[in-house]
Structure formats: structure tokens, C-alpha cells
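In response to the reviewer comment on reproducibility (Comment 2.3), we provide here a single inverse folding case reported in full, input and output, so that an independent group could reproduce the run without further information from us. The C-alpha cells appear first.
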């Protein structure tokens, strides 16, 4: 079990686990997951960390479809910040307790502000990392918001 799966269990939400064989040479972890699971790219989400206003001690989480990218201006706006930039991978790993490519929005070491792209609402359930490469967890966006305190905003492009 990963902290992400434990968080879903503890939160008593409906979820499904999907496991696949991770290829270390894959160019995109998210697209690899979507392809391995036979899901459209818009329904599989990636977890990205940003630093707020250039302060690597102030991090936030963006959850966007693997089919696109995080819009940093939209993310800053959703967080009511002047600007955000992508967090250093080592800072992201330290704050979440997960390795890059396996960072889950669930079960992170520290609860960080989180924004989920509003496109998540158009699916009954979305997939995201369950805490390690090759392991995905699927649940509704509403349940993910309930478990993480996240807000919805159009942060993907």
C-alpha cells in the first residue's frame, strides 16, 4: 500500500487501482499510464508542484490532464498569487514524500494548496498516480477534492 491508497481507504471513497509495467525509458509518465491502461489522455491526470512567488518553501499542487500542460498564469490566479514557477524536483519530492513520476495528489507528507483542472468535472472518474510509477488510482474529482481540500479552476492548456 502507498500513502495515496491508504488516504483513499481512510477517506471511505470509491476508488479503483490500476497497475501496469512501468518502462523507465518512457518519455512521459502520464502518457505511458494512459496508453498502458487504454484511457484517453484527457482522463489521466498528472500531479505537478509549483513554488509560489519564487519561494521554494511555499509550494502548491496542480493536477492537470496528461494531454496538456499546466498554465502557470492560470495557476497563479487560482492561488491568488503574483506568480508561480515549476518547483525544483528535489523540493517536490521532499514536500510530498514521493518520487517524480510517482507523485500522487493523495497522501502527501504535507498538505499543500491544491488546484485541479476544471476539465476533471467532465468525467465520472479520473486517474492519477497512486504513489509510485506503474500504479494509478481512479476516483471522482469530487472525492479527490474532498480528500485533499483542492479547488477546481481552469489551469490546464
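Designed residues, in position order:
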Amino acid at each position: 500500500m502507498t500513502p495515496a491508497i491508504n488516504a483513499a481507504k481512510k477517506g471511505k471513497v470509491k476508488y479503483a487501482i490500476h497497475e501496469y509495467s512501468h518502462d523507465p525509458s518512457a518519455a512521459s509518465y502520464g502518457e505511458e499510464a494512459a496508453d498502458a491502461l487504454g484511457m484517453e489522455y484527457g482522463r489521466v491526470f498528472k500531479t505537478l508542484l509549483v513554488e509560489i512567488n519564487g519561494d521554494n518553501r511555499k509550494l502548491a499542487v496542480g493536477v492537470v490532464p496528461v494531454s496538456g500542460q499546466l498554465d502557470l498564469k492560470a495557476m497563479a490566479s487560482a492561488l491568488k498569487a503574483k506568480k508561480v514557477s515549476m518547483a525544483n524536483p528535489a523540493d517536490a519530492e521532499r514536500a510530498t514524500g514521493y518520487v517524480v513520476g510517482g507523485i500522487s495528489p493523495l497522501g502527501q507528507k504535507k498538505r499543500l494548496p491544491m488546484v485541479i483542472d476544471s476539465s476533471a468535472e467532465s468525467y465520472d472518474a479520473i486517474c492519477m498516480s497512486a504513489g509510485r510509477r506503474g500504479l494509478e488510482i481512479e476516483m471522482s474529482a469530487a472525492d479527490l477534492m474532498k480528500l485533499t481540500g483542492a479547488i477546481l479552476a481552469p489551469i490546464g492548456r
